């Protein structure tokens, strides 16, 4: 029972981290700007001003849309996997593996890995100042947690208790 509670807590934590990574405004950070997947916040006269992401080329905009889509899909599949896991706890025959939940987690894992990888390889590659922010780091942490959850769901079997 304690292992089950730990898995659920880890899964909920992963969902929260993925949502924060997708929504929060710190994928690329400079002294005067914060850029996320959806817009840019600039510090002008001690006030933060929101603007659309206009500085990207057409090709970079396509990459950004890929990052946005795969981040949202990662959130969706992770949340769906949590509901499927809870449903499988009550419907899965004893001794069976949580394969469907593991597959959903694997898809979420691949989505967030794809999003962070594309962001790393294609966006901000020529920027001289600034660095990756906490949302970007949370995305990579979420990748590791979803990979761990994938293994956690596929390997164990439902107990006979």
Number of distinct beta strands: 5
Q: Note the total helix count.
A: 4
Which strand-content bin applies to the residues?
5-15%
* Shape category: elongated
Average of pLDDT: 89
Radius of gyration: 18 Å
Largest sheet: 5 strands, antiparallel
Ends distance? 10 Å
Secondary-structure class: alpha+beta
The H/E string reads HEEEEHHEH
- What spatial order of strands do you see in the largest sheet? 4-3-2-1-5
Helical content band? 55-70%
- Could you list the spans in which at least 5 consecutive residues all have pLDDT below 50? none
Task: Please describe what this structure looks like.
The protein is an alpha+beta fold and 161 residues long. The chain has four helices and five strands, in the order αββββααβα. It has a five-stranded antiparallel β-sheet with strand order 4-3-2-1-5. Strand 1 and strand 2 (33-35) form a beta hairpin. The mean pLDDT is 89.
Record keyword descriptors for this entry.
161 residues, 11% strand, 4 helices, alpha+beta
Question: What is the topological layout?
Answer:
Elements: H1 2-23, E1 28-29, E2 33-35, E3 40-44, E4 47-51, H2 58-91, H3 99-122, E5 131-132, H4 134-154
Antiparallel strand pairs: 1-2, 1-5, 2-3, 3-4
Helix pairs in contact: 1-2, 1-4, 2-3, 3-4
Give a short overview.
Helix content is 63%, strand content 11%. It has helices at 2-23, 58-91, 99-122, 134-154; strands spanning 28-29, 33-35, 40-44, 47-51, 131-132.
